[in-house]
Amino acid sequence: MTPLFVAISFAGGALATLSVLQLVRPVIGGRFVLPALAAAVLTTALTTTLGVAGGVARLDFLLGLCAFTPPVLVLLEAAAIGLGASTRARWLLMLAWGLIVFPAATLLPLVLTAPCRFTGCGIADFGGALALFVSASAFVLPAWARPGDALTVEVRGGQAVAGLVGFWLAFVVWLVSLEAAFDHYLLRILLAAVVGPVAAALGWWLVDLLRAVGRAPVRSLAFGFLAGAAATVSGAVTVSFPWTAVVAALAGMLGALLHSLPRLAALGLAPRWGMTLLGATAMGFLAPPVWGDAMGVLFSAQVGVLLTPLAAFFAVTLGSALVSLPIWLVIRRRPRAAA
């Protein structure tokens, strides 16, 4: 990746961060999310240093992934603020994800799959969904609401549209920049980044319509759009159109079904969205070994290609949840922080 593509990646990450701040403004209020932004800088330094020094991955690849950590960390801090976490607890949460979970989820799968000597024993994850979205979704699973907590997020129409459009544009720019070359794959990645979220939005809206959940169509489309972005990154190169749209639509449908589960909703907004995005991301993360060109089960009939991705997915999910669990337990037992 040339310095130009690195700069584009970080520009996309910056725009995504601003868009996410627009979406979570009702939760964070006037707070400055310093723990999230500081953790993004520290995790970039740590992940790139460990990865390059250990010969695990190229610097440009690691920088491209790290460029999208700020919006993810802002979402995580918004979840902590919504549950009344103190400033100290927010710092602990952000640093736990930034200095433990993200570097481990990025580097350990690369280290463990490096000795692979046959096709299909590795992990095809173009945009780093495992490190960015699987780990972050699992990180908030233990953040169930305390008695009396009633966190809801109501973003006004104009703010929601501006935030989603900005995030979509940022997501497209960032994902395309990861290719780091002007080659024939750029069009495939661009198509996936544009079509995937739209297909997922339509899939979510269709499920809500058939189930008559009473949610406004605009909200259904917005929720599906976010699920589609998380589901698109892994197979942006290895899964061709129209399968990218099919995978994203299925991810949107799965997200809608999970989001409407009463028992999941009772746990609170953070774990509800964590499980929703975890399901949607799983659909996209497993797309390459199922739908991928030549390597997928549907094309090669080699079921074994699923074993490594499944093991990595569950390991990152469990590890991330266990790292955050003690901090969330402390947050739940202490009085809510003052606004």
Question: Can you give a write-up of this model?
Answer:
The chain is mainly α and 339 residues long. It has a single domain, classed as Ammonium transporter fold, CATH 1.10.3430.10. The chain is built from 16 helices and no strands. It is globular. 52% of the residues are buried.
Radius of gyration: 19 Å
Low-confidence stretches: 148-152
What is the string of SSEs from the N terminus onward? HHHHHHHHHHHHHHHH
Q: Could you describe the largest sheet, including whether it forms a barrel? A: none
Structural class: mainly alpha
Topology-level CATH name: Ammonium transporter fold
User: Mean of the pLDDT scores?
Assistant: 88
Helix content: over 70%
**CATH class descriptor name:** Mainly Alpha
Contiguous helical run count:
16
- Give me the CATH superfamily: Ammonium transporter AmtB like domains
Classify the beta-strand content into a percent band: under 5%
In CATH, the architecture is Orthogonal Bundle
How many structural domains? 1
How many β strands by DSSP?
A: 0
Shape: globular
Q: How far apart, in Å, are the first and last alpha carbons?
A: 43 Å
